[in-house]
C-alpha cells in the first residue's frame, strides 16, 4: 500500500511515520485491501481540524480524527476498474493536539493513541462506521483485534 504522510504541525517525530506505515500495512493485509491502494495521513493542530470539522461536518469544535473516503460508490457513479489502476482510499486527518491530550486522559502512550486514531480513520475509509450500536460494536471490536494483533494494545 502506498502511504503519504504530511505533518503540518512540524512537531511530530518521524519515527511515528514508520510505526503508522507498519500498522496500516498490517491492517490492510487483515482487511484484504489491494496492494496498489493509496491513502494519505496528515497531522494537524486543533485549530486546523476544527476548521475542517466545521466545513465538512458543520461541527464547530476540534475532533481527534477525520476521514475522507474517495472510493465510496454513489448511485449513477461511473466506476472504472482495472488491475493496473490504483485504489485511492482517501485521506486521514489526525489532530496531534487531541492525540496528546487523549493519551494522557486514557492513560496510555502517545504512540498507542496515534496508532488507534490512524487505524480508526483507516477503517472509516474501508466503510466501517459507528453511527448505529451494532456498527459501533463491530468497528471497535475490529479495531482492537488489529491493534492487539499488531502488538499495540493497551
Describe this structure in words.
This protein has 154 residues and is α/β, with parallel strands linked by helices. The chain has one domain (2-150): Collagenase (Catalytic Domain), CATH 3.40.390.30. The chain contains 5 helices and 4 strands, in the order βαβαββααα. It has helices spanning 15-30, 46-57, 96-105, 110-125, 133-150, and strands spanning 2-7, 37-44, 65-69, 87-95. Strands 1-2-4-3 form a 4-stranded mixed β-sheet.
Show the helix and strand layout.
Layout: E1 2-7, H1 15-30, E2 37-44, H2 46-57, E3 65-69, E4 87-95, H3 96-105, H4 110-125, H5 133-150
Quick gist of this model?
With 154 residues, the chain is α/β, with parallel strands linked by helices.
Helix proportion: 40-55%
Cα-atom Rg, whole angstroms? 15 Å
* Total domains: 1
Order of strands in the sheet with most strands:
1-2-4-3
Overall shape: it is globular
CATH class: Alpha Beta
Helix-strand topology string: EHEHEEHHH
What class would the helix/strand composition place it in?
A: alpha/beta
Defining key terms:
154 residues; alpha/beta; Collagenase (Catalytic Domain); four-stranded mixed sheet; 5 helices; globular
